[in-house]
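Give me structure tokens for this 50-residue protein.
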Amino acid sequence: MITVDGDQIWERKADGGFPDIAIVEQRVRDRVAPGRALGHADKKDTEPAS
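Here you go.
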């Protein structure tokens, strides 16, 4: 289980396995600094697949 300030952001059984690091970074950022960009991690979902 991964928590930030007591809030659960990832739990292996509930979220279906182990997280990709980019997802963890995004969830932590959303709790700690929602207005801050993560750069490459934020762009991952918007880039066309190769």
